[in-house]
From TrEMBL:
This is CheR-type methyltransferase domain-containing protein. The lineage of its organism: Bacteria, Deltaproteobacteria, Bradymonadales, Lujinxingiaceae, Lujinxingia. One of its GO terms (molecular function) is S-adenosylmethionine-dependent methyltransferase activity. It holds the Pfam family CheR. Residues 15-35, 337-368 are annotated as: Disordered. SUPFAM superfamilies: Chemotaxis receptor methyltransferase CheR, N-terminal domain, S-adenosyl-L-methionine-dependent methyltransferases, TPR-like.
Amino acid sequence: MGGDGDHREALLLRGQPLSPAPGLPASADSSTGRPVPLSELRPVLEWIQERTGLVFPRARRTHALRALRKLVRQHGIEPTELATQARHDPALLDALYNALTVSESYFFRIPEHFEAIRARVVAELEPGARLRCWSAGCSEGQEIYSLAMLLDEQGLLDRSELWATDLSPQVLEVGRRGRYRPWALRGRACQPLRALLTDESAEFEVAEHLRRAVHFAQDNLVSDAPAPGPGACGHFDLILCRHVLIYLDKESVARVTRRLYAALRPGGWLLCAPADPLLFEHAPFEVLPSPGGLLYRKPEVEPTTYAHLTAKNEVREPQLPPTAGLPAEFVSSRSALASMPGRPATPTPPRLPTSSLTSTSRSEVASPAFAASPSVLDDARAAFESRDWTRAVRLLEAPGLEPTEEVALFHLRALANLDIASALSAAQRYETLLTHHPHFHYLRARLALASRDDNAALSAVRRALYLQPDFLMAHHLQSGIWMHLANPERARISLTTLQQRCSARPDEQLVELGEGRTVAALRAEIEAALRSLSSSGGDHVG
């Protein structure tokens, strides 16, 4: 990110020995006591989900149960009494939250977001106006301090109000201290800062004037509590809620979305991570594409219907906004499964960007042989379309279901909505089966992009294009990867190539894996992206 070299006074480097990793459970008590069956702890997870909206898919459930087992041993509590005691013991409840929440982050994560903040939020601020910002689900504070550094560079820190909230009080305390390990500077935008470290084994400390600028407070995003700060309703110019909503169930995502929408002033911005679920189905945001994912903006004039329903507490899912101007990797107007022959096309926005990566052609539907009843796959399709990713995966992993290309690609799509790492691992297992399938390599590219491995994404999408040179969506994805790699000239070449290939096709033709897009709609996206590259001199902000 440009300007990071100007943060030299943002960090005070200290040769302190590394302390135990904050926010993680301490070692288990040496006294073993009776064995604690994991089955006795599952009701605790269900209670936590009801209270916070946190979900524990298979990829995280075992780790969560083991963290609970360590907690009950530390406190000498019977597993069946853990939830009951936590209801009446705030310290135990805090320890429970800390054991089950994810506190992983680093400075200037998704640098494209900070460029967008500079180019949009800061640039549009009225002279002399105050800037009010909220890091919702702030983890250990790296995100809010990154924002504080940017505002300090812009001369806006003194007239900025910065709030940072999280469910776990232990990670909030880490944020208040502002002391971190060098690993917190691992992002590519942090290299100028990392170069300042004189001892890679020492902690460093955020400058005092930045720590004083941030207000840390505990908050449960799923609750009905007012947003932090005075006059919180319609109060914030900018809210960052990144890598938080992916851990919540769908109902909680909807509640949190409406709460964040209410906390924004008209014209205020909400930034989420590319892996987070789409939000425009829950509140009438204006949606703008950017290399760092979708940017959400509260309209200057709120839609009358939404305001009326909110006042009556009868908010329903609004009609989805037009998607022709949005990048295909972020918008799905229908499920690829729903577009199979004989299945109605039902609008189904994906939970993750990777949820719209593959589709099944007519020939693939007609020919595969299944060792198990086809109804198993039908049930998996139904679970997927209802966004029950865990059930879809369980059905697709059922004994006797032959791993055909269709099953393997579908399995990867479902896994991608639960855990990127698990999907990447499954992709390795399917390498031999799918090595000649361009859709598989397109999916691998999308998974790599979601895990911020741009080079692996570029390699995979090139393989997809080698296997299918006229694969329009692979060309489209390749242009996005070049933008992530800060190579606007390569992005322009990819977009121009895609534009030429589109010109040879009928406007009304549907684009393969385009999720309902026509060639005309894709061409409009290409033209908008090329205009954006030209107007920004190549530094695309979105």
